[in-house]
Amino acid sequence: MQKIGRMACTCCGEVIPVKQQANGFAIATCNYCDNKLQAFGQTADSHIRAKMTPVSSDSAPAPTLAPVVAPVQEKKSAFSLFN
Ligand SMILES: [Zn+2]
Prior knowledge:
- The protein is of the alpha+beta class.
- It has a domain at 1-55.
- Helices cover 12% and strands 27% of the residues.
- The chain has a five-stranded antiparallel β-sheet with strand order 4-3-2-1-5, with helices on one face.
- The protein is elongated.
- Zinc ion binds at residues 9, 11-12, 14, 30, 32-33, 35.
- Zinc ion (ZN) is lined by residues 9, 11-12, 14, 30, 32-33, 35.
């Protein structure tokens, strides 16, 4: 899964990585207290992303995330289901 940011664990408060599931929604698993915060829909995903610090604003020199607005929508893929 792709790491998209980090956030404080909602259970113990430790900083944990936030990743993106294959379905596009966010998930954060805490290795400190074994808590799992998993989005199953757009509402939960929005809340998790609002709490997290995006990974691109960390010390990473080159952003690997694609632009939010894709210029071309010609190709049909599994990801087009979420657009
Ligand atoms: Zn925790």
